[in-house]
Amino acid sequence: MTAKVLVIDDDPDTALLVKVILKSRQLATHHAINGPEGLMLACALQPDLVILDVMMPGMDGFEVCSRLREVSDVPILMLTVKNQSADVSQGLAVGADTYLKKPFRNADLLSRIDHLLKRNRQANPQGVQNLVATA
Q1: Are strands 76-80 and 49-52 parallel, antiparallel or unpaired?
Q2: How many domains does the chain have?
Q3: Residue 131 within any structural domain of the chain
């Protein structure tokens, strides 16, 4: 079964770049352009991994991450230009599994995704828990 990756990022260029990179891993990639849409799509898709930007209008990535953590243990990779150590600490504190700064190397993104998906398969051999609507 192909793993599902949800990219929540208001920048369509970043989302497209991630999709192209993940094509090499044959992952099904879905895109939401803001936090509320991302939460609704996460509930509908039950993704195996969420790649989340921080700086989005309305609901930022820290809030989205926090809300996802209320209902799911889906792996979350924060991918953002916010790269101060306080930002990284905040991202991890609200529940992100890892944090990657933009711009990033393709190999760094792929290695983190591979690690998170492998860890998730080992922890949840029957699949990701159902998400409940939080949006």
Answers
A1: parallel
A2: 1
A3: no
